[in-house]
Amino acid sequence: MTCQQQHRYDPEFELLPHDQSQFNGRHKCAGCAYDKGYSLGLLKAPSVNIDFESLPNSQAGTVRHRSVQAAFAKGYLDGVLASY
Ligand SMILES: [Zn+2]
């Protein structure tokens, strides 16, 4: 599964650290990780985890080789802030 969403080209993701580590979700879409974190943040989910398997891959745009953890955490924070 490869991500085809427009968020692949969102310049926001250029702020995320680079991460080439396979174990850290390399090739997974940081944009989708952000969206996932955001929706959990909106719900103020008390327990969160990053399900790498469910994230689509991405080989394109600004999300390529970006830290999936940082994207997820930023999404969670933004979601929590948006819930107030
Ligand atoms: Zn995506």
Descriptive account of the structure:
The structure is a single chain. α1 runs parallel beside α2. Helices cover 33% and strands 0% of the residues. The protein has 84 residues and is mostly helical. The site of zinc ion (ZN) has 9 residues, from α1.
Q: Number of helix segments? A: 2
Total E-strand runs: 0
Rg, nearest Å: 12 Å
Count of spatially separate domains: 1
Q: What are the segments in which pLDDT stays under 50 over at least 5 consecutive residues? A: none
Largest sheet: none
What would you call the shape? globular
Chart the SSEs and their pairings.
Elements: H1 30-42, H2 68-82
Helix pairs in contact: 1-2
List its traits.
mainly alpha; globular; 84 residues; 33% helix; binds zinc ion; 0% strand
Compact overview of the structure:
The protein has helices at 30-42, 68-82. It is mainly α and 84 residues long.
